Amino acid sequence: MSGAVQSERRERLERSYRLVLAWYPKSFRHENGEEILGVLLASAEEGQTRIGVAESAALIRGALRMRLRPGPGRLPWTVFVAVRLMCAGAVVQFTTLVTLLATSASIRMAAARGGTPTHSLTFTLVGEGILLGLAVAMWLWLAWANGRRRDPARFVSLAVFLLYTMGLVRDLSGHALAYAPVEMSVAIVAWAIGLVTIVLLFIPRSWPYYRQVPELARQ
Amino acid sequence: MQEATFLILTALADGSQHGYGIISDVARISDGRVRLRAGTLYTALDRLRADELIDVDREEIVEGRLRRYYQLTPEGGHVLAAEAARLQANATVALSRLRLARGLAT
């Protein structure tokens, strides 16, 4: 293999690594990006031009951890658990979103057999997907902001929880549990996670943490 | 302590190493069973530095790229020694009970 081909392959591989490394916070990339890139290139197989699935997954997981890690200073256990629960809430909603996408074809077939118009079902599924995507983003943002002592984030968490509770009560009073048991069960689990999170954020032990002057976030 | 963390600290127990060196050493120590990915390694290194169990020994520029060498701090050495003693005590009990059970069976 010529040196030019080898060099081109290496450049392609380096570009694909840089794309995934872009998921990390800027400050982390600035401090460690080139070092990690060196390790990734040293670990690559001969002639490799694309990043492997396992390597990508490890980098994205690491990037998410870096983005969600608490800022400087120790968290009280109440906020620590609340932040972890918010991450769990994001996982629950993300799993629901993936399940919805994976089963959308069978839902359409079942609906078609039942005489439901396809276009209205598509509208409902897309709307549901967007709401779930927003819910995942909201959980992750709240985890990030509360981990960095952003006091307004605590009150945003409370407002979101109250809105969610109102929606859930409305759905349950419309007998949604009877015709969509799985979806409503997941919604109740997400609500329970939200309830514990709100209690943890607002009990007296958490208050001093939010009363301290926010330190510079590490990103 | 997670196994990956234990193996990273073990890799640094007898001297400083750079990232790729740690990955290779962990594979060697675990007999190829644990293959650390760069993403996993640097998440762990960041956490261990924040906990002051490791720090940076020195930096070099190799082929235009930064290479950092990490080393155990005294606190990291104590934590590793305590964890190794705990694992050794557990393993000793497990092996002695297995020997006892085999002895009873024969």
Taken from the alpha-carbon principal axes, the silhouette of chain A is: flat
Distance between the termini of chain A: 42 Å
Report the β-strand fraction of chain A as a percent range.
under 5%
- Helix/strand order of chain B: HEHHEEH
Taken from the alpha-carbon principal axes, the silhouette of chain B is elongated
SSE series of chain A: HHHHHHHHH
**DSSP summary, beta strand count of chain B:** 3
What do you see in this structure?
The complex is a heterodimer of chains A (219) and B (106). By secondary structure, chain A is mostly helical. Chain A is 79% helix and 0% strand. Chain A has helices at 3-21, 26-43, 53-68, 77-113, 118-147, 151-173, 176-179, 181-202, 207-211. In chain A, helix 4 packs antiparallel against helix 8. The radius of gyration of chain A is 22 Å and the shape is flat. The model of chain A is unreliable at 215-219 (pLDDT under 50). By secondary structure, chain B is α+β, with helices and mostly antiparallel strands. Helix content of chain B is 61%, strand content 18%. A 3-stranded antiparallel β-sheet of chain B has the order 1-3-2. In chain B, strand 2 (54-62) and strand 3 (65-72) form a beta hairpin. In chain B, helix 1 packs across helix 2 (19-29). The A-B interface holds A 28, 32, 34-40, 42-43, 54-55, 57-63, 65-66 and B 18-20, 23, 37-43, 46, 62-63, 65-68.
What characteristics describe this protein?
heterodimer; A: 219 residues; 9 helices; disordered C terminus; B: 106 residues; three-stranded antiparallel sheet; 4 helices
In terms of topology, how is this protein built?
The complex is a heterodimer of chains A (219) and B (106).
Chain A: H1 3-21, H2 26-43, H3 53-68, H4 77-113, H5 118-147, H6 151-173, H7 176-179, H8 181-202, H9 207-211
Chain B: H1 3-11, E1 17-18, H2 19-29, H3 38-50, E2 54-62, E3 65-72, H4 74-105
Antiparallel strand pairs in B: 1-3, 2-3
Helix pairs in contact in B: 1-2
